[in-house]
Write a structure and sequence with these properties.
Blueprint: H1 3-10, H2 13-36, H3 43-58, H4 67-75, H5 81-106, H6 116-136, H7 142-157
Helix pairs in contact: 2-3, 2-5, 3-6, 4-5, 5-6, 6-7
Length: 160
C-alpha cells in the first residue's frame, strides 16, 4: 500500500501507530497468554506464560523481537495518544502477571507474604535484560541466563 493509501485509511501516523499497537497486543495475547490458559492454575500457568513470553522475543519472524517493548523505549518521554496506547498495553500485561502471581499465592504455590508487585517488577527486569541480550547483543546464552533468573525468582517466592 502506498503512503497516500495508508493516510487515506488511517488519517494520521498516530492513528496508524495506535492501530498497530492494538494489533500487536492482540497477537501477543493469542500467542503468549491464551496458550497458557490451558495449563493448570497457579505456578504451572505462570511458568507457561513466562516461557511463552521468552519465546515471543526470540521468534525469528519477529523483527525487533518485542515491538511493544521497543515502543516503550521510543515513547517513554513523549506525551500523546501513542504513548497512552503503549501504556495501556503495558498496564494490561503487568495486571495479568500480577493476577497470575496472586493466583499462585492463593494456591499455596508461593508464600502468603509475597509481594506480587515486586515479583512482577523483577520478572519484567529479567525479561528486559533477556530481550537486550538476545536481540541486541545476540548472546547465545541469554535464554539460559533468563531461565535461571526466573527459576531463582520463583525459588525465592515459594513457601519457606
Amino acid at each position: 500500500m502506498s503512503k497516500s493509501g495508508l493516510f487515506a485509511h488511517f488519517k494520521s501516523i498516530e492513528q496508524l501507530h495506535r492501530e498497530l499497537i492494538k494489533h500487536i497486543g492482540s497477537v501477543f495475547r493469542s500467542e503468549v497468554v491464551s496458550p497458557a490458559l490451558t495449563v493448570a492454575e497457579g505456578l504451572p500457568r505462570l511458568e507457561a506464560t513466562i516461557a511463552n513470553w521468552l519465546t515471543w522475543a526470540s521468534r525469528p519472524t519477529a523483527l525487533g523481537g518485542a515491538p511493544l517493548l521497543a515502543g516503550f523505549f521510543e515513547f517513554d518521554d513523549r506525551e500523546g495518544s501513542v504513548r497512552d496506547s503503549l501504556l495501556e498495553e503495558g498496564i494490561r500485561w503487568c495486571t495479568h502477571l500480577r493476577q497470575l502471581v496472586t493466583q499462585a499465592i492463593a494456591m499455596d504455590d508461593f508464600r502468603q507474604d509475597l509481594d506480587a508487585e515486586q515479583f512482577v517488577f523483577e520478572l519484567c527486569g529479567i525479561y528486559f535484560s533477556f530481550h537486550v541480550s538476545e536481540r541486541f547483543m545476540r548472546d547465545s546464552g541469554s535464554r539460559g541466563f533468563a531461565t535461571l533468573a526466573v527459576e531463582e525468582l520463583i525459588k525465592r517466592a515459594r513457601r519457606r
